[in-house]
Amino acid sequence: MEEDRHIPQKADSLLDVDRTFRDRVAYTGRFLWRDWGGMIGLVLFLVVVLAAVLAPVISPYDPLEQHLQDSKMPPPWEEGGSWAHPFGTDPLGRDMFSRVIHGARVSLTVGFFGVLIAGSIGMVIGAIAGYFGGQIDSVIMGGVNLVLSLPYLLFVVFIAAILGRSLLNVILIFGITDAPIFARTTRGEVLRIRESAYVESAVCAGARWGRIVFDHILPNLIGSLVTLGTFEMSRMIFYEAGLGFLGLSVPPSVPSWGNMLSSGRQYLSSYPWIATFPGLAIVFTSLGMNLLGDWLRDVLDPRLRRSRR
Amino acid sequence: MQRYLLSKLGQSMLLLFGVLLLVFFMVRATGDPASLMASREASPETIERIREEWGFGRPLHIQLWDFLTGAIVGDFGKSYHFRIPAMPLVTERLPATVQLAATGLLMAVVIGLPLGLVGGFTPGSVVDSVGRFLALMGQSVPNFWLALIMILFFGVRLGWFPTFGRDQWNSMIMPAFVLALPTMGQVVRMTRSSVLEVRSEDYIRTAHSKGLEPRTIYVKHVLRNVAIPLVSVLGVQFGYMLGGSIYIETIFSWPGIGQLTQQAVGWRDFPLVQAIAVFVSVIVLALNLFTDLAYAIIDPRVRYGRR
């Protein structure tokens, strides 16, 4: 790693008594950061995926089931709570633990399909712009720059308000508005790969553009696009929760983290756990995906060192 | 230099035209802007009245022409909710938002820049770990949630800061900090990586070998090169802050454009929404232009047209 060159003296392990304490702390920090970061990220991400997939199996209650006699119950470590509801209950007596688990489904669905759509559109547009260049490139990149120079969140909020609350709308909004980022990355990579010796040889050997694009250029793009996709998915999960918070994402009956935060805000001072746990779930997911993304970048794309970001 | 700035100016004008088209068609995307503006229970007569009042029944190209000619002089029609012209409603909210975003930007630089610089010079050190932790948190903690938690602890439980409004001197501290958090993380990351990159350059080694004081090297050679990417990050981040202010201003009842946006969306006041969209886009485009200008001042390569 680039960073290592600047540290001539490194402790080999925590037990290396010849080094100063600071060196050893620094070593531990580096070690955690480099290897454990990716591991932790992967574990966090897998936990969220499992929670989403197995939600009906592992959640103790139906997330929509109301028990009005148990409403506003705090988590077990506070006065009046019980382990029957580990995250407490909301004003309608719904179990927050089950709702948070089910919320993972909404977030991951939006993130996954949003990235899938944005990635597919962006990859095709970017590859066309990068491969053909000239006029096509100027027109496409003009549009891409237009969208990227807009105040993104503002327009997402407006479009969501215009189209109305539904899961499909949210996915489409993120899928389309996020495509330019994938297009820009793809174009840059295609421009680079197009100049490479193996593409030149393929052209000399008489390969047509379809073969060059699909057999030689696209496979080399996967690494950077998967990395970008991880970060963008985390961003979409963020923004979906934000839209839900403003009451513009999925319908209010759906247990999504954003919707829960939105109702938790009304009861913030009296029943703070209603807003706390869905927020922690977002932090958990986002942290996992960002750590995973950093790690994927190092593994899949050695040219983009971590220090470059 | 002049040619560079002129071409940037031309690009901005083109982008502005694109924004106007987008805003015009955005409201008409569902096919029936009149029923979009009416409440859900509105009778067909009400919808028809709105259609008459706003001229949605006229041919599209005439509507577009009216919209564009109005937009040039800042006329986006009357706010549906307030019944007065929409644009002044937006501009009177500007000072509050700029105050918040500028303070946030300042906080991001004052906290983020030193962490990034020290982290870049001593990778793996304790300060570096703090900086990277902050960067990771800025990326992973939703600031609208952090705002709620901070209100709960520093506002309600400890009573250190007011939890809403803009009346006291310390009203601004919590919203500005929360708004700045993602930017702070970006500043740390960006500064750190550019220091790491710059300090292994040949000219730094040359500077060392000709016996320059380390201080001179840091200030004259490293900092100047770090400033270039930093300026572009700050330009972009200011635009993000204007978007993020929708949440933060709503949560803290801060009377700025973000709060107005959230209200306008709630009221389905689309003339006001259009005015906000265009106004904020103009600010962001102007900021981009300003960033380009700052680029030209800092970076001689831009000034002499080698880019």
Give the gist of this structure.
The complex is a heterodimer of chains A (309) and B (307). Chain A is mainly α. Chain A is 69% helix and 0% strand.
Number of strands of chain A: 0
Shape summary of chain B: flat
Number of strands of chain B: 0
Individual helix count of chain A: 11
The radius of gyration over CA of chain A amounts to 24 Å
Quote the distance from N terminus to C terminus of chain A.
14 Å
Order of helices and strands of chain B: HHHHHHHHHHHHHH
Q: Which structural class fits the helix and strand makeup of chain B?
A: mainly alpha
In the predicted model, the low-confidence regions of chain B spanning at least 5 consecutive residues are none
- Largest pleated sheet of chain B: none
Structural description of this entry:
The complex is a heterodimer of chains A (309) and B (307). Chain A has 309 residues and is mainly α. Chain A has helices at residues 21-53, 55-58, 96-132, 134-149, 152-163, 167-177, 179-194, 197-204, 209-245, 257-266, 273-300. Chain A contains eleven helices and no strands. In chain A, helix 3 runs parallel beside helix 6 (167-177) and helix 5 runs antiparallel to helix 6. The longest helix of chain A is centred in the middle third of the chain and has 37 residues, at 96-132. Chain A starts with 20 loop residues before the first helix and ends in a 9-residue tail after the last helix. Chain B is an all-alpha fold and 307 residues long. Chain B starts with a helix and ends with a helix. In chain B, helix 7 (126-140) crosses helix 9 (173-198), helix 11 packs antiparallel against helix 13 (270-298) and helix 12 runs antiparallel to helix 13 (270-298). The longest helix of chain B has 38 residues, at 214-251. At the A-B interface, helix 1, helix 4, helix 5, helix 9 and helix 10 of A face helix 1, helix 7, helix 8, helix 9 and helix 11 of B.
